[in-house]
Amino acid sequence: MSQDYDIVICGGGMIGAALATQLAPQGFNIAVIEALEPQAFDLSQNFDLRISALSPQSQRVMQTTTAWDTLQSMRLCPYRRMRVWEVEGFGDLTFDALQVGAEQLGHIAENRLVQLSLWHALSSFNNVTLLCPAAPVSFNTVASGTQIELDTGATISARLVVGADGAQSKVRQAFGIGVNRGQYQQACLVAAVTTELGQQDITWQRFVNTGPQAFLPMLGQHGSVVWYHQADQVRALSQLSNLQLGEEIMRQFPHQLGHVDVSEHAFFPLQKQHAKRYVGEGVALIGDAAHVINPLAGQGVNLGFQDVACLAKVLNDAHEQGDNWSSAKVLIAYEKQRKRANSLMLHTMDAFHHGFSHTHPAAKWLRNLTLAAAKVPALKKQVIRYAMGL
Ligand SMILES: Cc1cc2nc3c(=O)[nH]c(=O)nc-3n(C[C@H](O)[C@H](O)[C@H](O)COP(=O)(O)OP(=O)(O)OC[C@H]3O[C@@H](n4cnc5c(N)ncnc54)[C@H](O)[C@@H]3O)c2cc1C
């Protein structure tokens, strides 16, 4: 027996779950397949290592349901300012939300809590089925769409399959969608930290010869340190104990953190990847399944939320008008809009990465000049608005 759905979303992470919240009110019969069950939230838990800076645009998507209020009732840290500077140079720039009449530039959230708050919002819809833990084993084209065999032994079918299953997307592979990819020489180390001195209203990024060093605030005096370096250096840092790494951070990072205690750390390779197509007959890709971007400016999940808003609008509009909403002809409107925008951001981050990891004096002079030029008030406001998605 096969259970039939209108839409099967493969991957119930932040982006897959967000899409389900935007489609459910339209009455689609939806299944979300997720391999890993996120741990339930408890205030006594340590802060997670995987966090994201959510833009006001992503916040707006979550505010269309109860998800944002739920996230706020768990843990969420607003930040008002962002500082970017070059260690040996004259480029030093601070963006402040007040400059565009806003209260904050964004919020730092733990990825798991974003996912849990979206799942909580989904639980109020009886037309959404969460299949977890479950993963697809095979995808077969049938007359009505796609039949999916799951590792639980169940078989389900869908008119539309959405790949929200991250960078290694099985959906993308099953539908034969290729990617362009590249690997950076650098990697980044992420550490969950507690700092002696509070830095809770500011996120900062300092450029040194070896790559950027960044701090993202969390509630209390918690935060996250991100350290970009050559891949072998990052691997060596990741071998240190929490105590040793804390000492190394205090030695190498700006001193405004005071004493630093590390509770957890891990390293991540840096990669870029872009799907050659986002859609086909009965299939669409969103989030990291479609694009993986250098995390330098913390834009990955925000691009995913923009995919969600766009794809939901295309599907909901077509459904309302009685169009064949799962057809490539309808879905292409989503690809046209999002592929170009994501490509621009991927290339901008690429240029940023290369520009800021170069040690040549001319490159250094140019980036200092760029930071100095961005101080011009009108330009600065534009940059803030762009980063906030206004
Ligand atoms: C070090 C680092 C820092 C980052 N910082 C930021 C930041 O500050 N701001 C920002 O916007 N972005 C940031 N990003 C990027 C951000 O983490 C990703 O863009 C985001 O997680 C993508 O969300 P997603 O839901 O598309 O994919 P994922 O988060 O990868 O979620 C995919 C989901 O699908 C599930 N899944 C996968 N395969 C299967 C399968 N076969 N069957 C069933 N389920 C499956 C997974 O379990 C997971 O739940 C960062 C990335 C890195 C590496």
Low-confidence stretches: none
Bound compounds, each kind once, are:
flavin-adenine dinucleotide
The description of the largest β-sheet is: 8 strands, mixed
Discrete helix count? 11
* CATH fold label of the largest domain: FAD/NAD(P)-binding domain
CATH architecture annotation name of the largest domain:
3-Layer(bba) Sandwich
Q: How many domains?
A: 2
Range of strand content: 25-35%
**CATH 4th-level superfamily of the largest domain:** FAD/NAD(P)-binding domain
* The CATH top-level class label of the largest domain: Alpha Beta
Q: Summarize model confidence as the mean pLDDT.
A: 92
What is the radius of gyration computed over CA atoms, rounded to a whole number of angstroms?
Answer: 21 Å
Order of helices and strands: EHEEHHEEEEHEEEEHEEEEHHEEEEHHHH
Shape: globular
Which structural category do the helix and sheet elements fall into? alpha+beta
Terminus-to-terminus distance: 48 Å
Written overview of the protein:
By secondary structure, this protein is of the alpha+beta class. Helices cover 35% and strands 32% of the residues. It is built from 11 helices and 19 strands. The mean pLDDT is 92.
Summarize the structure in short.
The protein is an alpha+beta fold and 390 residues long. It has two domains: 2-66 and 115-181 and 272-353, FAD/NAD(P)-binding domain (3-Layer(bba) Sandwich), CATH 3.50.50.60; 77-110 and 185-271 and 362-388, 2-Layer Sandwich (D-Amino Acid Oxidase, Chain A, domain 2), CATH 3.30.9.10. It is built from eleven helices and 19 strands.
